[in-house]
Specification:
Length: 660
């Protein structure tokens, strides 16, 4: 009987009401629809459409010409060269530096790209207005299609684009941003509200389904690895502010900012073996003999954290020498229509591990599921693993037909290129409790116990330190008249304390002046106050070791103790940068959760989208059937719901052939 992989599509209909539409509550055309604020200073507006402006030494918006004639090509290809570094301090200088701005929205609005409005939110770095913004007034109609395009650069696969972006906190008008590349170097401008010109390679899309809250509401760093080029190419990168049902009377589009844009030469990803592979996923739990090569049908699923896959490794229970190990990378199981993306063979070398590096490296999609298929000499020792689900994002497949074992994992590891995409997204969090008086109201913290000064930063994202989330750094600024009086600690939401610094700086005033602490930093005990930026490693050890396995969500506190009298001070700044793992949801068929017969899962559709093309949220699951009739059950809302619910079964993600 033919085996069929079926996709279950659950649709929960919902009742909605229509809200009255805001009509430009902000009196400034450069403002946000969600905030009733005006510009503190007059923002400049790029030329009225800027499809055809000439870049020259000075910016003159009244002299349109043909941008195609300019040639700003960066040819510095030294190792790790910075090809572009833009802080958007003064965007009137950008056309002269080779940038162009192309607004081909359906009806020209009252704004284009403009200098950041600090009355909406301040810049990620630099002066408060030192970022570039765009908003709902980019169109007077209903479709925004507005491009900011970099100068011409000599780019190669593996080069890295990094930038920060955000929208308005609590906005009810969703925004969307695409980052695109011209793979040909033709540099053809878009010509209409749905056109992308020659910028056909989509590198990144933020909030593709225009979901409320789907665009970052705090400054968030994104890192992209260039791909899609045939070799070194003189070309450009485009930032496309693209929103439908937009404009002053639409349901979407509010206000976005972009800051701190850099493009750097990468070290890998240009074909061939990765020059500097780094460990990406390391599932090192080994408590059982999981499977032997003779069983066949062996595979481990996993979700990549980086945009380039460089290799994989498998651990065996016993060491061996001179035996072939064959590993291959697939985008689906071999018996379920998967395609092999890479393969390689290595020989065991007297240790328990065997690693294979892909040649060439493979561009993968962060968040999608891939499969490491395992084969080799039948004399190989048993493959190590664990039955306790140590890696929740994947599982073991074994025996003829690649049977799944949802709570089992092989002991495995994956590698990515050093220039790969982010395993997580860097997000900045700032304390709203500053300025904070140290020992205010006559309290004393001489023993750092009775009245500790706790300054909180609230982290709303989810993740676990060491398992996808990384505490990258913290920054503090303290005005105090005797620095050596201060003892500083970082306290996690779980209550774990890590000593940052204590009794340093002597009688220096304001010793911690925008000082950063991060793992691997310099020894602060050898530094001279004022300490400056640093960065420095905490005196008590690393963030990674101190907070390993702890959840990032909750209140992190800077604990400040003034252990002597006679001097006073304030905490002026306490901020954190945490790299947050991507959230993978099954409201897209490509991310359908895999189920085996008898499995039971609990989920919800509150944050799901209508990716199935219906008027209500949907979620997807997948399983491999036997070819005979099988029963699938959904139980809603603890036994009942007031809404209609639909269960559909398809045979692939085209959703064209409905089986039931």
């Amino acid at each position: 009987m033919k085996r069929i992989t079926m996709l279950i599509f659950a649709l929960i209909a919902m009742v909605s009401t229509i809200e009255a539409q805001f009509l430009q509550p902000n009196s400034s055309i450069y403002g946000s629809r969600s905030l009733g604020v005006e510009n503190k200073s007059q923002s400049i507006e790029p030329t009225e459409r800027q499809r055809n402006i000439e870049s020259s030494a000075t910016y003159n918006p009244n002299q349109p010409a043909n941008l195609q004639s300019q040639s700003f090509v960066v040819n510095n290809r030294n190792p790790q060269a910075t090809l572009l570094d833009e802080g958007f301090d003064d965007i009137t200088t950008l056309p002269g530096a080779g940038y162009s701005f192309v607004n081909v929205s359906d009806s020209q609005g009252s704004t284009d790209w403009f200098q950041g409005n600090d009355a909406v939110f301040p810049a990620q770095s630099g002066a408060p207005t030192a970022y570039i913004g765009a908003n709902f007034n980019n169109t007077a109609g209903s479709v925004i299609n507005n491009f900011m395009i970099t100068p011409v650069l000599e780019l190669e696969n593996g080069d890295v684009v990094t930038f920060w972006t955000r929208s308005v906190t609590g906005s009810t008008f969703p925004d969307r941003l695409e980052v695109r590349l011209d793979p040909t170097g033709a540099n053809t401008d878009p010509s209409g509200p749905a056109d992308v010109g020659s910028y056909t390679e989509l590198l990144l899309e933020i909030n593709p389904t225009l979901t409320q809250g789907g665009y970052p509401e705090v400054w968030t760093e994104f890192t992209i690895t260039i791909s899609g080029l045939s070799g070194a190419t003189n070309t450009r990168v485009a930032f496309r502010y693209w929103v439908t049902d937009a404009g002053p009377v639409g349901n979407n589009s509010d206000y976005i900012g972009i800051d701190t844009l850099t493009i750097e030469e990468g070290t890998g990803g240009g074909g061939g073996v990765c020059g500097s592979p780094i460990l990406e996923i390391n599932q090192d739990v080994d408590d059982t003999c999981m499977a032997n090569i003779t069983q066949t049908g062996l595979a481990q699923s996993y979700i990549p954290l980086e945009a380039e896959a460089a290799g994989a490794g498998i651990k065996f229970r016993d060491p061996s020498t001179g035996l072939n190990v064959d590993l291959s990378l697939w985008d689906g199981l071999p018996n379920a229509g998967g395609t092999m993306l890479a393969s390689g063979t290595t020989q065991t070398d007297g240790t328990n591990w065997a690693d294979v590096y892909w040649d060439p490296v493979v561009n993968v999609t962060v968040g999608n599921t891939y499969y490491i298929v395992i084969d080799g000499d039948t004399a190989l020792p048993c493959i190590s693993g664990s039955t306790n689900d140590p890696y929740p994002d994947g599982n073991v497949f074994a025996n003829a037909g690649y049977n799944p074992f949802p709570t089992f994992d092989y002991t495995f590891r994956t590698y990515s290129c050093d220039s790969g995409g982010p395993a997580c997204t860097s997000t900045a969090y700032d304390s709203t409790a500053v300025p904070f008086d140290i020992d205010g109201a006559g309290t004393s913290t001489s023993d750092c116990a009775n009245a500790p000064n706790l300054i909180p930063v609230t982290v709303s994202d989810m993740g676990t330190i060491g398992s996808g989330a990384t505490l990258e750094n913290i920054t503090i600024d303290i005005a105090h008249t005797f620095t050596a009086d201060l003892d500083l600690y970082l306290v996690s939401p779980n209550g774990t304390e890590l000593l940052l610094a204590n009794d340093l700086g002597g009688g220096t005033d304001d010793g911690y002046n925008g000082t950063m602490f991060e793992d691997g930093g310099a020894d602060i005990t050898l530094a001279t106050a004022p300490f400056g930026v640093g960065p420095y490693e905490p005196m008590g050890g690393t963030f990674a070791a101190a907070f390993a396995g702890e959840e990032i969500m909750g209140d992190w506190n800077l604990k400040v103790c003034d252990d002597a009298g006679g001097d006073t001070g304030q905490v002026l700044q306490f901020s954190m940068s945490i790299c947050v793992p991507p959230v993978i949801t099954n409201d897209d068929c490509a991310n359908a959760y895999a189920l085996a017969c008898g499995d039971s899962v609990v989920g919800e559709t509150l944050t799901a989208t209508d990716s199935g093309g219906n008027a209500a949220p949907d979620v997807f699951y997948k399983f491999t059937g036997t070819g005979s009739a099988q029963l699938v059950t959904i139980s809603l809302c603890g036994g009942g719901t007031d809404y209609d619910s639909v269960l559909r079964v398809f045979d692939d993600c085209n959703l064209a052939n409905e089986l039931a």
